[in-house]
Give the backbone structure.
Amino acid sequence: MNKDRVKLKKGEYLDSRGNVRQHSEKYYARKRQIRRRLGMTALVFLSVVLLIVALATRGREKKPSEVEAAETVEASAPMPLVVAPEPVEEPEEEKPTGLSALSHPDMFYEGYQVFTDDHTKEIWNQEVISSYGILVDLADGHVVAQRNAFDRMYPASMTKVLTILVAAEHMEDPEDRFTMMQEITDYVFKNDCSQVGYSVGETMTVRELLYGTIMPSGGDAALGLAYYTAGSIEAFADMMNEKVAELGLSDQAHFTNPVGVFDEQNYCTPAAMAMIMKAALENDLCRAALGAKRFTTAPTEQHPEGILISNWFLRRIEDKDTHGEVLGAKTGFVNESRNCAVSYERSNDGHEYICVTGNAHSAWRAIYDHVAIYDDFVN
């Protein structure tokens, strides 16, 4: 049969011998299946292309410097609908967040003594691991709850709360410059101190040293404040103990260095540390440093983009239910005291408290001990 002269009807085909055959239903089902698969493949391919285009567009919406800046902002505006927003002028200086934006505490009582009475509770919660603890009401100095609050403990880097207080009170101009010294970096290395990461010869403002002392618990920043203020570690330690005496706490506290490096004569009670924190919160410069969550140091030759530092206690506790907001904090750790912390909270009803704990087995446990104490005793 001549295949070229055969006219086939719809659904017919010629087999290999030239015979006219009819397509089966299976043939049409297979054909429909192929069409569906081709359609799905095309749809997936189109989706991938659109996703790649969207990601590329988002990557062009912000410069790298703008992305880094965005990470330090506490709240962001809704995403604009335009693909490429008009460029905006970047701020000259990144402002720290936290207590720096708040007015001076006006509900604190006068003086630096606390008292217990029949209404003072023991910290009974078994979930509170810390061996030491105190919660003080800043309206009158009443000890709301306590656990070994008047026993001596090693404050570790909680010492730095007193360091910034002494430095701030003797600071004529927060914009004064200080140049990092070899003696400081050697001390930090020898004693395995935490640090901001300044290099020898790097210059920064003493205001930045305040933030560096508290937020990453920088030993290099704390020693910078000591040398800037007194010229030596020993002379600064004398100034620290003079401040302790001024606060009326000499029978409860004594300090030998501005960093919190272990020394048997570097000690305090939880009650004394609460009062040192109170005094620091009453100082504008200290309050700003204690309340900042994120901060980027000014660019230098050694760090052209600055150094991003954080207060991890504040950032980790901010989503926990404490019946208020924790607005300032400082942590500490040495083997002899394990993890300790001091924090300041403003409750939902406007009351203000300071909490101090010591001898927890981890940094996270210290945070959760503060959460538990606030939860148990703050309305």
Observations:
- The CA atoms of residues 215 and 235 lie 24 Å apart.
